[in-house]
Amino acid sequence: MNIIEIKNLSHHFADGAIGIDDINLTIREGEFVVFAGMNGSGKSTLFRHLNGLLTPSNGTVILDGVSVADDPKRARRMVGMVFQNADSQIVGETVYDDVAFGPENLGLKRDIIAQRVSEALNAVNLSTHADQRPHLLSGGEKRRLAIAGILAMGSRVLVFDEPFSNLDYPGIRQVLNQIVTLHHAGHTILIATHDLEKVICHAQRLIFMKAGNIIRDGAPNDNLKEAERFGVRAPCASRFGKEPVSWLL
Amino acid sequence: MASMTAFSYLTGASALHRMDVRFKLASMILCSLATVKAQADGLLLLTLALGIILVYIRLPLNILIRELRYFSFLLLFVFIARSLATPGEPFIKLSFVTLTYEGINDGALVCWRLSNIVFVGIIFVATTRPSALKTAVEWWLRPLPFVPEQRVAVMMSLVIRFMPVILEQARETADAQKARGVENRKNPFYRLKKIALPVLIRTFITADELAVAMDARCYTEKRTSVSLTACRNDWLILGGVILFCCLMVV
Description:
The complex is a heterodimer of chains A (249) and B (250). With 249 residues, chain A is α/β, with parallel strands linked by helices. Helix content of chain A is 31%, strand content 25%. A six-stranded mixed beta sheet of chain A has the order 6-7-8-3-9-10, sandwiched between helices. Chain A has a four-stranded antiparallel beta sheet with strand order 2-1-4-5, with helices on one face. In chain A, helix 5 runs parallel beside helix 6. In chain B, helix 7 packs antiparallel against helix 8. By secondary structure, chain B is mainly alpha-helical. Chain B has a two-stranded antiparallel ribbon. Chain B folds into two domains: 145 residues, no CATH class; 80 residues, no CATH class.
């Protein structure tokens, strides 16, 4: 079943620059898709249309049969987004408060909020940090907190914009492990990155973007050899003709 | 990793942390008003009480002192201005300025009052979750006509939430400028200009990013509020604060 259907989607910025140009795309429920491309290729712009943060110049995005434009609140509940800069999306003064922010916006009752926050913090292994101040967490923990924030809203599609940027090796492994676990739990995962090395082993589909267009879409193994043509470094192993290895091993 | 600042919530389980925020807000306002009216003995009483509370809530004093070092410059400025501007018996007389005994006394009192008010505010912020503060402000503003209480409350809680972020950004910017030798420039206005502009720009960018992130999590003014419940202890503490304020002023 297709959970996301994008039809003729275009976005032109106020200065006339083209963000994305006539994109058609479908994503099946439970898929793990990596979007790769250089800076400015349109990955983040495309993602911001999935939950109505941007309004398209043309075209539509349909989430599980309902247009994003018709019900943006449903879209934001359904598509949870983890932004590149984890610091700037922390709203709460404690880890608990931050995770509770989304459910509070949905107007849920206090006992349901408490239950959702507890489940989300358990899912990302941050339940012992509930009373801690988010700004004192490590980079990997901040990303996991951001993930907990969207899990508490009950999002089915999890969108990550450069989830590994500014993280050290343990932080990358923490976040990657979390993403893979969530995929196994049935979530649809979309990741935008220009660094395939860390995630490609776990992806089922690889999409290359360039200048606002989708230029390749297929299985990772079929597409990887062309990565450097599109300004994305191929994983080290595949440069030597071998299969990429997971960073979790 | 961001360092800790004194101007943000400090997790704890003290009586002040547990106190109903509506009562805490009222107590803070009463103490601040009493401070304005109090003389030296009243101020001494409050300073002692604040010192005990600071130790009780375990606010890290070294961080507090570091955070308030710029505030001490403001106090010094106020003290000098009051000492020079208040007429009275001369203490030091130079060619065109006269420092008076009354001015020194007046300046010291004003600085003492300002410091006490700042410490009352710091204790309030350190023991209050912004979400609870937001609900309390909404509760107090609700009877007032033409005041959008929910919007005002959200703005207040965001300002408090942003304070440590802005301070952290100012610190990073200052370090980056030190690394490029800004300390060789002795003109304080030049240095202020060079730090203020980048910090302002970064603050606006962060505010934009935060607004988008809040939107992505369905932000609305009509959201589930923190439930506030007053108990006997809250009334007792408020009664104690009123008595204390009377004692300060009398």
